[in-house]
Amino acid sequence: MKIAPSILDANFCTLQAEIDSLSMADRIHLDIMDGQYVPNLSFGHAVLKPIKFSNQIEAHLMVNNPENFFDMFHNLNCSIISFHIENTGREKAKLLLKNIQQRGLKAGICVDGYTSEDFLDDEILSLSDQILLMSVKAGFGGQTFMKSVLEKTKNLRARGYRNEIEIDGGVNINNVKKLKDAGADIAVVGSFLMKNDFEKRTQLIKDFQAI
Ligand code: DX5
Ligand code: ZN
To answer: Which residue lies with its CA nearest to atom 4 of ligand 1?
Structure first.
């Protein structure tokens, strides 16, 4: 299983060292929250700009009007930008996916924990380079995994979706095998990984990748 550590629970006083401790990971997951779409604030472009990333980075935009943030995260060299279907609706989502792709980036669509994957129509499936299925309600790290995401993943595969499916929220080493078996490719891991010291993080990243 690929792993994308979420730095939401990182120590931002020593952010470069925190990022460096994750260099083995497949990509770094940036949770961007605006206090509007979700009732929490995280970090933005200004905090990330001085940081050197050796991994691919992806932006998970939990914000209203996500298009306002595309330039910022493009300029930060994000490879993947994902936004939520719940706050754009289907038709705007299609335009925004194309906008991201026209920049030469991968475009992802996110589905919140309490939203049905049926909200994604076939055109959105064919446009999305990635689907990020949340297994918690967007907004906070450290929540309990919603196992309904397993069925959602299987349903998307049954509909013929072949690009990457990423699962985000409450993932740990005990539930990741089920995600893989359901058809997911990549796990976002926040608190389960980040509460550990650097040495243990390296071992855990290897453990996820071995599944
Ligand atoms: C929640 C975020 C997640 C979260 C993951 O809104 O999108 O990426 O930080 O953290 P854990 O793994 O602790 O659920
Ligand atoms: Zn996330």
So the answer is: 141
30 CA distance to ligand 2 middle (Å)? 7
Q: Hey, is 185 helix, strand or coil?
A: coil
φ and ψ at residue 47, rounded to 5 degrees? -70, -35
Question: Mind listing the pLDDT tens digit for each residue in 85-122?
Answer: 999 999 999 999 999 999 999 999 999 999 999 999 99
Mutate to test the pocket of ligand 1, among 140, 166, 201 (most ligand atoms within 8 A of CB): 140
Band of the pLDDT at 34, cuts 50, 70, 90?
Answer: very high
Q: Are 53 and 19 in contact (CB under 8 A)?
A: yes
Total domain count, the chain:
1
- What range does the domain containing 139 cover? 2-209
Q: What is the reported pTM?
A: 0.98
Interval between CA 66 and ligand 2 midpoint (Å): 14
- Å from CA of 139 to ligand 2 middle: 8
- In total, the chain counts a number of residues equal to 211
**CATH code of the domain covering residue 32:** 3.20.20.70
169 CB within 6 A, ligand 1: yes
Q: Is 141 helix (H, G, I), strand (E, B) or coil?
A: coil
141 within ligand 1 shell (Cβ under 6 A)? yes
